[in-house]
Amino acid sequence: MDKLKREDLYSLEKYSEIRSEFRKGVIAHKKVRLVHVGPNVTIHFEDQLVMQYQIQEMLRAERIFEGEAIQEELDAYNPLIPDGSNWKATLMIEFDDEDERRRQLAQLKGLEAATWVRVGTQDKVHPIANEDLERETEEKTSSVHFLRFELTPEMVAQAKGGVPIGVGIDHPKYEHEIVAVSEPVRTSLVNDLD
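Above: the chain's sequence. Below: its structure in token form.
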């Protein structure tokens, strides 16, 4: 999947004109890139369109129009676009109650490393997590983690061939598995692969 370049972005004026329709399309697109793993973890699989939306929103909110500042946004978000042999995702641990969230984040240290994807009957693929910065302390884990799942050529071929794609977490305090994501999600994920 290609990385975004400045010419892929809308000017602030043009984005203002199309924002409502563009946003509707992105929201619909994101729904088929979202996997709930149990009641408290959501994995958002990222791609070029989602990152374009994030950048456009940042440029709009910050009124960024200088070339150097636009490039900084591209440099920040482009690493979250899949490279053709991997899936990139944002994992979110979600508890509505603040006290409960604090207790759970203390117990769920290492959850990001216990997360996995599986293509067909291949081995589980655990992610390379948080390449941008450390998101865990001695006391707790973060509620947000960035993941990269590297796939073998055989896994890519099998995924493109139609086998189920599973997602799960094998953490002592949080064990949940989706044997096969829905067909719309599977199709969307396969589109990330070369």
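The mean pLDDT is 96.
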